Input
Amino acid sequence: MSYPDRARRPVVVTAAAVLLAVMAAVAVAYAVTSLVVLVGTVDAFRPAARETSASAEEIDTMVFLVSVWIVLGALVSLVAGLLLAGLAVGVRAGRAGARVGTWVVAGLGVLAGCCGLVGLAVQRATPLELNENERGVGELLGRLDEAYPGWWIPLGAGLSVGQVLGYLVVAVLLALPAASAWFRRPAPVPYAPAYPPPYPPR
Output
């Protein structure tokens, strides 16, 4: 028995798979860009940092912390990109496990994106209060902010917003009735040629 209507992949499932693939490509590109930005930022930061009252040890510590933070962020973005690519393949193939996994990842992605936006807003809105002994650290933070490319912070904020919206759209697409019916379609029955029954023995 065949199910021609239900066997055809719905447009909403195809759209969800394509969106997951796009998000995966963006995540991988962001990981690579982060490492490139790190090199340029450190090169611009060190000469500017030497003009402050911070010690050489404080400068090296700041460079180390920034490097670790960006590299970890790049690794997380790379893993997320690979995971999204795998989910895109699974969703396109109609695997129910990939659909459930996408919902789980979408929930975590929305939470992470919202936390990132809130953290960025608080960081920008709250002035940093340092005592006299930490004046050098405050100067380093100011120079570090200047060392980043002007487009880097807005890009991160924009990608966080896009991440939240993308996950929400994918989750909704996979929850629509057409997608639900397609993921619950019966497994195809292998074709078996019909042979006439053998004649009974005489």
Notes: The helical segments are 4-7, 11-49, 56-93, 96-125, 135-147, 152-175, 177-183. The first helix runs from residue 4 to 7. Residues 1-6 have pLDDT under 50 and may be disordered.
